[in-house]
Amino acid sequence: MQLVPSISVINNQTVRLTRGDYDNEKAYKDSPIDIARRFEEHGIQRIHFVDLEGAKKGTPVNYHALEMIANFTKLKINFSGGIHTDGDLSKVFEHGAESVTSATIAVYNKQLFADWLMSYGRQKVALGADVLNGYIRVGGWQKGTKIELLDHIGYFHERGLRFLKTTDISRDGAMEGPAIELYKSILKEFPNISLFASGGMRSMDDIKQLADLGVYGVVFGKAFYEGKITLQDLEQFNAVH
Question: Which domains does the chain have, with CATH numbers?
Fold first, then answer.
């Protein structure tokens, strides 16, 4: 199972939100590149880079931080945040992203997202399907929809989707435990999908529980930044798994 730390960025600073609330922002003193290097030194191979400004604005913003991490580490960078056009996508790749997770465009322009799966390949393009009370939210989680999660996943699964990242927004940054039942329901419906679980991690015990469940990877952030998961924990887990 892949351990994928999340680095969320506003104005080239490392920040965390709680439950996607931009008014509940906490900035950390370490820069995105400093944190990325530390992860790399302890055996992490991939990070999830979240451009929070881009997600809210609808077009990527924090190219500088992305480029710094790409140029000064060997980490594989999965980029998320505001990719709405072919131009956005190609520019993100040009600045060093190895893959992208896209959410909003998959709701507003399903055909374009399906085209990306075909043209860039399903290794490069993942679906972000983040939910609150069972319904998809978009635009940096600021806008609700009436789209049910499993229907949304199913549409793109039929069109070749392999990689999926799903967050239970009510748990994100709250450190109240992951949405185990939610992930069970996804894996039951789509047993061959590569699912990245995100939101609510409190400790390595939560991550181990998700590994036992059969998820492909775990995306985590706040538990690390608040010291509940350490670099040594990550190193030990990777050594065993």
Answer: 2-240 (3.20.20.70)
